[in-house]
Structures are given as C-alpha cells and as structure tokens.
Amino acid sequence: MHAIMLKAKLHRAIVTHAVLDYEGSCAIDGEWLDLSGIREYEQIQLYNVDNGERFTTYAIRGEEGSKIISVNGAAAHKAGVGHRLIICAYAHYSEAELANFQPRVLYMGADGELSHTSNAIPVQVA
C-alpha cells in the first residue's frame, strides 16, 4: 500500500517576480530548494494566500541566496509581486517509509526571509 503525502512546503513565500513572457514554471531560490528537498523540475502546487488561486507548475532553480520566488508564464496571471504563496510538493510513500515520515517545512517571514524550518506542522487547536 502507498500513500501520497506532503513532502515539502514553503509557507508564505513572497512572490518577488511575475513574468508572463517566460516559458513557464516557478523559480525558487536554490538554497530554499535544497533545504526543502524540492528538486528542480519537480511538480509543485501553489496556493495563493492573497487571492485564493490554486495552480500546478514545476520548480526551477533560482540563484542561490537571491530570495527569488518568480511565478512565470501563464501562472503569472494567478500571482503577482508581493503575494504570499504556500508552495507544496507531494510524493508517494510506502508503508515502510511512513514509519519515519516527516515533511520538510520552511517558514518564511513577512520580509521574505527564511524564518525557520521544521519537520512537523503544529496541531491546530479549536
């Protein structure tokens, strides 16, 4: 048996560029890709906190240390500069892999900087 689970998440990443006339994809600072475990060309889901748009694209490597989050191509209609995104990658895991499974979460601050990382999402309280 297999399960599709959240592999990695960049929580509230701030869009720095929205480039309509680009081939497509989402460029993410290479350091953040490495920290999150998201691979270049991996399918990602983007959830726009500011306007509710949800869309699928793939990750490309942005310049290391640039803090870039560039939504490109048709996706640039769904997110603009300054918008806050939740960027997620999902993967298939076997029952054996699930025994020690933890997603990798990068939390971004209001200034677009990496705030902290975690391997768990807090329990939501009532």
UniProtKB/TrEMBL annotation:
GO molecular function list: aspartate 1-decarboxylase activity
A single GO BP: pantothenate biosynthetic process
Active site annotation, chain numbering: 25 (schiff-base intermediate with substrate), 58 (proton donor)
Cellular component GO terms, alphabetical: cytosol
Enzyme class per UniProt: lyase
Family matches, as Pfam families: Asp_decarbox (PF02261)
Cofactor note: Binds 1 pyruvoyl group covalently per subunit.
Residue list for modification Pyruvic acid (Ser): 25
Pathway: Cofactor biosynthesis; (R)-pantothenate biosynthesis; beta-alanine from L-aspartate: step 1/1
Keyword set, alphabetical order: Autocatalytic cleavage, Cytoplasm, Decarboxylase, Lyase, Pantothenate biosynthesis, Pyruvate, Schiff base, Zymogen
Cofactor: pyruvate
EC number(s) on file: 4.1.1.11
Catalytic activity: L-aspartate + H(+) = beta-alanine + CO2
Compartments, as annotated in UniProt: Cytoplasm
Main localization, broad class: cytoplasm
InterPro entries noted in UniProt: Asp_de-COase-like_dom_sf (IPR009010), Asp_decarbox (IPR003190)
Residues that hold substrate according to the record: 57, 73-75
Function: Catalyzes the pyruvoyl-dependent decarboxylation of aspartate to produce beta-alanine.
Entry-linked HAMAP family: PanD
Similarity section: Belongs to the PanD family.
NCBIfam families named in the record: panD
Protein name from the UniProt record: Aspartate 1-decarboxylase
Organism of this sequence: Aquipseudomonas guryensis
